[in-house]
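Hi there,

I know you've been waiting on this one. I reran it after we fixed the sequence typo, so this is the corrected version. Both the input and the resulting structure follow.
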Amino acid sequence: MRVNREGPVPESILPMHFMVRQLLLAAFLSPLGVSTASAAWLPVAVNNEASFHFNPDTVRYQVDLMSVWVVADRVKKGTDGERSVRMQYEIDCPLVKYRITYQAMHAEPMAQGANLGTEHPNDWRTVTPGTAAELIVKKFCAR
């Protein structure tokens, strides 16, 4: 099929062209952990050091494992100057264990501002009673 490239794009095609472009951008950015829209962070836990929020659009369940993105919004700056930490939790509900597979420290609250560094700890941890991690694990494993 030959496409005529001469002249302006018909107005009837513009909305579809825009939508396809947005879908392609979202598909490209999604595996990178980047959102094309501002995330709605909901509270999940709080302690003396930080309040913790999760993005419901990032909750994924696979058999016994689940994953979710969480932001720790610190009360005071951390040792590296971070005001917040964005983390990807992976939770093994039957074993009541979790690990953080990615974390990024940010200069401003709610994962905003300059990225001060990233880490990939990836070690499984047992849930300690009375911690924010316990509240996070309970929330997502009690479905």
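Quick highlight: Residues 42-141 form a domain with the Lipocalin fold (CATH 2.40.128.710).

Best,
R. S.
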